[in-house]
## 1
Amino acid sequence: MRERWLGSTGRKVPEIALEGTIDLEGALVLDDVSDFEMIHAAHERGTPVVVRASTAEEVLAALSRGEVACALVRDEALLSLDLPEMTYG
């Protein structure tokens, strides 16, 4: 399981996690990655950025942003995505 830093908390979290399985206190939780300015500003402040995703494409879009710590999913099948394969073929 690949992990990412959760903002400036000093904690690492899985890059893809089921909703409700990790502590998101103090995190900016978004439904998509469309607001680049908000994501960047939160990251600059050290605020963890987490994005909800319901498809493989949404997971990939969220994790393509370096500022995003984690993609939250409800479908367990999305936990086993092969992101390098999806990215590089």
## 2
Amino acid sequence: MQTGISDTHRPVMNKALIFAGELRTTVRTLGLGIILSTLTVFFLSPDLLRIVQHHLSGKLYFFTVAGPFLAHVKLAAFVAMFVLMPWILAVFWRALGKPFGVQGASLFFFVFFTVLLFYAGALFCYFVTLPLGIKFLLGFGSEQLKAVISVTRFVDFVTLFILGFGAVFELPVFMVFLARVGICPRSFFEKNRRYALLLIAIIAAVLTPTPDIVNMLFMGGPLYLLYESGIIILLLMRVR
């Protein structure tokens, strides 16, 4: 009897359904936590914006009536997610580990190092990549070309860039996970470096808020190094 789903794809579908079911049980609580945290941080957003502005830029301007308010809301939501990231990642890994039998010490390993690498990537972006990238881009200004930066665009640029870096820095952990559960063996990553490099270039182009090659290199370069480090970690862990 034909059911529309082949026996080959049935285990994958079952695991996906288990993952979605586990995630659904906690996503409402997580969403409520993010909303409440955003409301709390919103009252601190003027001071936070002043700190970020002093670190990365000069004067900021707004061109719509709601511009400043929306900028503060976006910044508050970003800070709330940034602070709650350990909880967010713990929820994600608990749901992902259920269908693959990852639990106990192994689950703690994935959660701990994912959180660690996320914050490492975010801090690297904030203190190294963003200052260099913004300085480079603003360096094209002149007496005839003066920078007038929208506060909304500035907040979008900074928050998306930091979140993007935090996400891509988690690559080695996901490589270890895929190898441990038997989805992608170590040899897969070793043999497909050229395709990984192409995919990294596409990801860098999509995640960077501006399409210039410098910002793409700032993200793509570290991401490829992380890809190679994932292979080295699998070698050290003797995971095939």
## 3
Amino acid sequence: MQPIFMTHIRQQFLERIAQTSEISQQLEVVSAHGCYLETQSGLKYLDLLSGFGVNNIGHGVVSVLEAINKQSQAYLHTNVYGEHMQSPQIQLAEFLISLLPGPLNGCYFLNSGSECIDAAIKLGRLATGRSEIVVCSQAYHGSTLGAESLRSDVHHKMGFLPLIPSIRFIRFNEEADLDQITSQTALVITEVIQTEAGVKLANPEYWKKLRQCCDAQNCLLAVDEIQTGMGRTGSLFAFQAYDFIPDMLLCGKALGAGMPLSALICNQNLLRHFSKTIPLGYITTFGGHPVCCAAGLAGLNFLIQANLIDSIAEKEQVFRNLLDFLPNRELRGKGLLLALELGSVKSLMRAIQKLFDSRVLAESFLFCPTALRIAPPLLIELNEIKQVCDHIRRICEPSQF
């Protein structure tokens, strides 16, 4: 009976659920705990993706599930964000702000990373009275029309034209391009680590100069930490490892501990433009949903109390010790956001399939289809890292290619 049931489920999935690729894994997950996803047939797969950055603290964290249950018993949605005083929002905002530099003292909660990007664009234009947005090429900021406008991949954008105007592209980590930030610029939006470009880091000095340039031109600086936030790179947010403070901090994915939640964090004086310069300048019906905020608060507490961030540097080093010596296989990244360069799309696709056959879930990057994404939940154990690296080393043997 089970094969017939599985075939029926697969058929329903293909006929009723929209897919975004023609090679979806079609993995039916029935439960998830720690670093593992379990299928209907009882097979366990080690998650090397963390739901593309959502499940930083792992799956099935008891305190998060308890917080979701408790809040759902109290109340769900009551009114649009910012109208009613809801304790989960306030508590999460207070905790986040206590962990950030002083100027970042206000939160606007939203639903997704893309929505957070759109809100940042609106706030930047509203606060400065300017229209130009400067963004780095090969960056990924989301898929709404506003976020899509920040994508430099012309071929991908062609089907969605016209996009929002006044977008200027500069190269990431190229100081010479900073002179393109001018008195016409409202906002510079950049990742601290370019994830979908294959995990590219900038020179620490670059951030100081970018901050100085934005100050000189009196424009705003927003950092997109939607993938790099919540401990992924060895600090709560990646920018905290460098000597600068952004005007806006954009976070999402892992912020909700598995629930849909994002936040635009900046100075409260800046956020007031949404209510004073143009009343209802940005509104969101479900942003800051109390159940999502309760989950986010419990997840952040777990992240801090379990000292997960303190272990990231050691775990990164284990990956490097076991993978760095592979011939012609560059390992890039920081913390538990790593990219192993395999040199070709064919090699990468073969590696992903072989890892899947070994019950390890892996993927590539949007703008770097030759590199293997290594981004497991932060609670991955050292012995699990060694097991993963054993699989990867076997796959990368010359005889396999």
